[in-house]
Amino acid sequence: MEIIRIIRIMQDTSKGHLLHSRSIGFVPTMGALHEGHLSLVRRARQENDITVVSIFVNPLQFGPLEDFERYPRDIEGDTAKLREEEIDILFLPDTSLIYPEGFSTYIEVEKISEKLCGAFRPGHFRGIATVVTKLLNIVKPTRAYFGQKDYQQAVIIKRLVKDLNMDVDIVVCPTIREHDGLAMSSRNTYLNKTEREAATVIYRCLTEASDLIRSGIINGIYIKGLMHERLLKEPAVSGIDYAGVYDPETLDELLEIKGDALLAVAVKIGDTRLIDNMLVTTTKGR
Amino acid sequence: MEIIRIIRIMQDTSKGHLLHSRSIGFVPTMGALHEGHLSLVRRARQENDITVVSIFVNPLQFGPLEDFERYPRDIEGDTAKLREEEIDILFLPDTSLIYPEGFSTYIEVEKISEKLCGAFRPGHFRGIATVVTKLLNIVKPTRAYFGQKDYQQAVIIKRLVKDLNMDVDIVVCPTIREHDGLAMSSRNTYLNKTEREAATVIYRCLTEASDLIRSGIINGIYIKGLMHERLLKEPAVSGIDYAGVYDPETLDELLEIKGDALLAVAVKIGDTRLIDNMLVTTTKGR
């Protein structure tokens, strides 16, 4: 595994592989790697000649009151895990190289960036759209891999790649969960024992709502009500940013469920904000 | 000369050339080609294996009260001229392919987009930044060519290419002028005979200001005053958007000229808005 820290070297390395008609699979991460990330890495390895993983904690996607400073970092542990996965390149750029003095270009994906998490984290998806565009231009992948856990992020990235005519396939992979259903997240390490146990309410809430929809209930507002009730019964839930039923493409709230539906939740467990979602497809089931 | 109208075909054609290590020179235009455009085309041909010219009148860079509908279009004449220049590919996409339904991603280059023309044409440079990013992703050029006449546009494109790590050289070529000094522009066709004669005041104003700076005058405000006076003496000048001395990089107004200086003018001659500029370099002369 080669570690590259310089943008120009990463670009030239990728160009070399592409000139030899080797496909490049890319997994952009913020590090603190868990099984969710590793599932993306394995998929990228399976489907491509060359696998590149980046670790970059992107300051641009954190609000001033958010957890940028506190966000878990474990470069040594991450490096060991990626070596074990036998990836080809770890791209590890410094913040000052990604955002040098004078940096002033931003990508805005309108409408879908304002929904769900966007309403609670202003500038968050602008930061993600900008850094992902940069990373895609640097790594030049054939395919880039993202987790479904960050559903809105995946929709936004698919949109911007299409809108800006970027020549890359965006592959969205299933959410990986702990044995009790909690979606894997680097932020789970923030939870104390009580909070960790309480956090399973999110998965249970999503599963129950999914079962209700599949049993034939089509009233989105009714299901939203049950989801809120379910979450608020758990004393460790200190706040709900959103919980409900949404259009999987526009992310608009669904009053009536006619086709596919996205169940999505963002809650605070103690001080930790966690998100999760479940796609309920009417044709194929989940 | 091949004419390509489909984005995917353009992308695949370029990819084929790059796989064979052929360099691609790209001249994006809005058509109504004049000697200014053709000078870019010739430079692109000289410096690259493959030359691509695009013609696309970009609705996104026109304000609601601007001249999008009226903007000169001459696909037949343009095609003939480009055939004569022996370019390889004319890329001629339809608006509905560049901005399909649901399009919602925009590039913002902050600060420099708000100066000069940006202050008078809100959204103009956002529209340019967005379409140029798209075109660069579609054509995948080694080098892209722009005229110095649109100085601010060139600075913004250089900024966004750097900020987004796009792997392309931006080449800025000298302004091409009519025999009496008027900068070539597709919009010159809007001018009637009196206006056309009056329009030379712009070049004369820039030349005089340039001479003053080179004679040692360093007071930017004084020179700005003289430029305004000069322009307003011409009865056909119906308004001045700006005229003055600016920092060539930040585009901020220069009170005192210490190094290189940008002289820039945007005026209305009758109903036609014309821009022009001149770079006064202290080390090399102009």
Which features does this protein show?
10 strands, Pantoate--beta-alanine Ligase, Chain: A,domain 2, alpha/beta, globular, 286 residues, 10 helices, 6-stranded parallel β-sheet, homodimer
Describe this structure in words.
Two copies of one chain form a homodimer. The first copy, chain A, has 286 residues and is an alpha/beta fold. Chain A has ten helices and ten strands. Helices cover 37% and strands 21% of the residues of chain A. Chain A folds into two domains: 2-173, HUPs (Rossmann fold), CATH 3.40.50.620; 186-280, Pantoate--beta-alanine Ligase, Chain: A,domain 2 (2-Layer Sandwich), CATH 3.30.1300.10. A six-stranded parallel beta sheet of chain A has the order 1-4-3-2-6-7, sandwiched between helices. Chain A has a three-stranded antiparallel beta sheet with strand order 8-9-10. The A-B interface holds A 7, 11, 15, 18-19, 21, 102-112, 129, 133-134, 137-138, 140, 159-160, 163-167 and B 7, 11, 15, 18-19, 21, 102-112, 129, 133-134, 137-138, 140, 159-160, 163-167.
